Amino acid sequence: MKFGILIQEGPYNHQASDSAYNFIQASLEKGHEITGVFFYNDGVINTTKLMDIPADDRHISKRWSELGAKGIQLIVCVAAAKRRGINPDVLIDNARIDGLGQLSELCIESDRLITFGD
Amino acid sequence: MEEQAPRKIMFVNRKAPHGSIYAYEGLEVILIFGAYDQEISAAFLDDAVLSLKKGQDTSEIGTKEFSATFRVLEAYGVENRYVERESLEQRGLTEEDLVMDVDVVDGATLRKYMGEQDVLLPF
Lengths: 118, 123
Fold this sequence. Notes:
The structure holds two protein chains of two kinds.
Chain A: E1 2-7, H1 16-29, E2 33-39, H2 60-69, E3 74-77, H3 78-83, E4 95-98, H4 101-109, E5 112-116
Chain B: E1 8-13, H1 22-33, E2 39-44, E3 80-84, H2 85-90, E4 103-105, H3 107-115, E5 119-122
Parallel strand pairs in B: 1-2, 1-5, 2-3, 3-4
């Protein structure tokens, strides 16, 4: 199965990002394909490398970057990102800022689009 | 990409127009998706029916008033625009209170339409 992922909530304030990450890990272990992860609404805040997390907690943006290094495309909505101060200077490695058209592509290419948000 | 049948994509709008950015950013997505050759629907239920109410004025809260933008959905290729009857009635509204032409359908019908979609996008 090809899964596209949409994340609509920010990290730490909401479970959505963690649930999405766990869903993706489980999907990959089962042999499914992730067509891409699209960050929208406050979800774009998952992708800043300025996060500085205490050592005893999970590092959410680093976790995403590591997933991107495995070849999963991480797409950050440009309009939502601009509103929230996310630009290429602060973007984690292995992610890219792109347009909402990319979310449309994910809807078309994936067997299922799974959204994580409120 | 290989040729395939258009996907049925429905936007499920449930949140109030003001007080959070969900409704506005949801509208931005709908407008972009209209440019793609897919079968796009927009459904409005719960507090999202308030997004379509005529005569809004947001000057006192200092946010953008975007209800008029819904009128362009048809021209942008959003063929199907549904409003749930129960949500409308619970808020004391009728079809005449809305800024654009919609199909008012009951909840059971709307759920049936949802079941026929390839993709549901909640905002």
